[in-house]
Specification:
Layout: H1 3-6, E1 8-15, H2 19-30, E2 35-39, H3 62-74, E3 79-82, E4 85-90, E5 96-100, E6 104-113, E7 117-120, H4 127-130, E8 135-136, H5 139-142, E9 151-154, H6 162-167, E10 174-177, H7 186-195, E11 198-200, E12 204-209, E13 214-219, E14 224-226, E15 229-232, E16 235-238, H8 241-245, E17 250-253, E18 256-259, E19 272-274, H9 285-313
Parallel strand pairs: 1-2, 1-6, 2-3, 6-19, 8-15, 9-10, 9-15, 10-11
Antiparallel strand pairs: 4-5, 5-6, 7-16, 12-13, 13-14, 17-18
Helix pairs in contact: 2-3, 2-9
Length: about 325
């Protein structure tokens, strides 16, 4: 038997064990597909104590959510392993050879990439340290929990006042720190004024923390503004190295390039799907799970038809 034939064979390898990956694995396992999930263990929402907005799981901790998902996929025979996929190449037989941690190699007929993204936070003293606590980014994820508190918003370098306008739904006390962003457009100036948002010019030097609690924003000129919550909109970098190495086409978005997919998560590379934050910065947990589900359904359907076509074409 050749080395190629000895490689462990799967119907689908799912790269990434977050909401999107586990959801895809769940539907594939229920479809009786031999499935492997390879999880590097770097979820975007790891710093958060809770996740919100997921119907029936509102307030659940991200770690508890993932653990429940692993139990569910195991019940359908899906394999899960900790590790990092370091390479995937077409095997010349309508599938891929996938390398895990630079050593172990398996074969798969189809590939789902759900590797998420990395938030590149502003290089401001205290932001990284308070990230997921009082430094937040999504009002739909955290707005209710911090409602009516004094908000600070550090202007996004591209989207400007957008985040401040959005969070004004959750607090009447919002201060927008321009930091290094461009001046507001006339439209944003009018909207900011209508929302009662205070605008502060100048660069932010750091956050003020007293007794392990955020109390203010310190400007480079020494001014301090009392705030108990700060929203930031850092740049996002999708973990799409595997997809781009396979030649997946990307699309430009206001938040940078992301791999292009159709409504099922199919990429431009035959046999490769992607879902979750790997294909969009605004995919919340519930959206990511939905994307994984759609990918799993589409892959199973494609495999069914592929197998039936092959049988129909066989002389026997």
């Amino acid at each position: 038997m050749s080395e190629h034939e000895r490689l462990r064979q799967y119907d689908v390898v799912v790269v990434g064990g977050g909401a999107a990956g586990l959801s895809a694995a769940l539907i594939l396992g229920r479809s009786r597909r031999r499935t492997l999930v390879v999880d590097a263990g770097e979820p975007r929402n790891a710093p958060a104590a809770h996740m919100q907005g997921y119907l029936s799981r509102d307030g659940m901790s991200p770690a508890e959510f993932l653990e429940a998902g692993r139990r569910e996929i195991a019940a359908y025979g899906v394999e899960w392993t900790a590790g990092t996929v370091t390479g995937a190449v077409p095997d010349g037989a309508d599938g891929f050879e996938v390398t895990v941690d630079g050593a172990r190699t398996v074969r798969t007929r189809r590939l789902v990439v759900t590797t998420g993204l990395v938030d590149e936070l502003p290089e401001i003293d205290g932001v990284a340290e308070r990230w997921g606590r009082e430094v937040l980014h999504c009002p739909y994820c955290h707005g209710w929990e911090v409602r009516d508190q004094p908000f600070g918003v550090i202007a996004h370098p591209v989207m400007g006042a957008h985040q401040a306008l959005m969070v004004s739904q959750w607090s009447d006390d919002v201060t927008l720190f321009q930091h290094t962003a461009a001046p507001l457009s006339e439209t944003d100036q009018a909207r900011v004024a209508a929302a009662g948002i205070t605008v502060v010019a100048g660069e932010v030097a750091g956050l003020v923390v007293e007794e392990d609690r955020l109390t203010g924003v310190r400007m480079a000129d020494g001014r301090v503004f009392e705030r108990s919550v700060v929203f930031v909109g850092g740049r996002t970098a999708p973990r799409d190295e595997l997809l781009t190495a396979l030649g997946a086409v990307t699309r430009d978005t206001p938040l940078g390039p992301f791999v292009a997919v159709d409504e099922t998560g199919r990429t431009s590379v035959p046999g490769v799907w992607a879902a979750g934050n790997a294909v969009g910065a605004q995919e919340q947990v519930i959206n990511a799970a939905s994307g994984g589900y759609r990918a799993g359904v589409a892959i199973n359907a494609e495999l069914i038809m592929s197998d039936l076509d092959r049988r129909a074409a066989s002389p026997s």
